Amino acid sequence: MVDIEVQISSDFDPFAEAKDSGAPEAKEHVHICIQKNGKKNLTVVQGLRKEFSYKKILKDLKKEFYCNENVVQDKDLGIVIQLQGDQRKNVSYFLVTASVVKKNQIKIHGF
């Protein structure tokens, strides 16, 4: 039997694909991922255009999905929306039906 040493990085960056790619279409995608925060999950939405009213989007998301939300200004990722729980499919459906983005512009990441 052969022993193979496997190294798994503990620093997982779900947006690494978007940062590494220098292609212009990478900046046009909205990335929706899930992050573990202790025992709880956070859904993170990154990549929405700056001209959108984040307060209106958050108000509608909170009303639609009955969850807490927050807007965070990240120095690397820009403005990021955080939602309580695993809301990836709900948020992607909401963004498409509200005509915020097109379906082919959404990338869903997670486990």
Automatic annotation (TrEMBL):
It holds the Pfam family SUI1. Keywords: Protein biosynthesis, Translation regulation. It comes from Capsicum annuum (Capsicum pepper). Transmembrane segments: none annotated. It comes from the Eukaryota. PROSITE patterns: SUI1. Probably involved in translation. CDD domains: eIF1_SUI1. This is Protein translation factor SUI1 -like protein. One of its GO terms (molecular function) is RNA binding. PANTHER family: EUKARYOTIC TRANSLATION INITIATION FACTOR SUI1. The lineage of its organism: Eukaryota, Viridiplantae, Streptophyta, Embryophyta, Tracheophyta. SUPFAM superfamilies: eIF1-like. GO terms for biological process: regulation of translation. Residues 35-99 form the SUI1 domain.
